[in-house]
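Quick question, first post here. What does this chain look like in 3D?
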Amino acid sequence: MSDEPLTAVETAVIFILLAEAGPVSNVGLTQDHGCHLKKGSREKLERLKLIEVDRRSGRLVLKLGAEGWAHCAAQLDAGSAPPRSGAVGGALYAVLRRWSRFLAAQRSTLDHFIAMSNAPAAIGASGREPAPVEPDVAERVRAAYRTIARRAGDLVSLADLRDRLGDLAPADVDAALRRLNRQRGVTLVPEANQKTLDARTRAAAVVLGDQPKHSISMGAP
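> Answer (accepted):
Ran it through. Tokens below.
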């Protein structure tokens, strides 16, 4: 991860994208969040792999990159705000410290928290909120992939991926992997040299057709 310092606006953009947990238009950053990201800063964040920019629709749509996830996780443990962060920066880092203590107490991770908070919560006729809904397993798999992969499209071992999903039933993870494999940008691949496989890697494989797959790649959806 780069040590190049970020401005207050650049830091704000990273955490807005984390909080939104999905694509945000460049216009939306300004209109909905009061955060105007100038071209130079946008290109800097893209160069550092902190964000990904989709230009296919004719407008700029931003989402958090693999390095962005790593940066946010690191800031939770930073302890104090960077110099010249101002009062708002100090408040943000106070919240991040509290957030870090909560995750530690729950033995949870940032990606799990984001996935959990994405679960829909509807209000019933009684006016009461229902019990928390577990996030879709496929969403958990995607979130775990982002914490391991340095960039979209990297190959990640299913053994490493399953280590991040230890609270889920293996059969549920297998089913999610098979669903994801049918989606754009997702590929499950076997180990080329089967003789090098250890027991952990073999056990983590998911079988598609009649072939075990040992790694996964996830590009832009």
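The two ends are 23 Å apart (CA to CA).
The beta strands are 24-25, 51-54, 61-64, 155-157, 186-189, 206-208, 211-213, 215-218.
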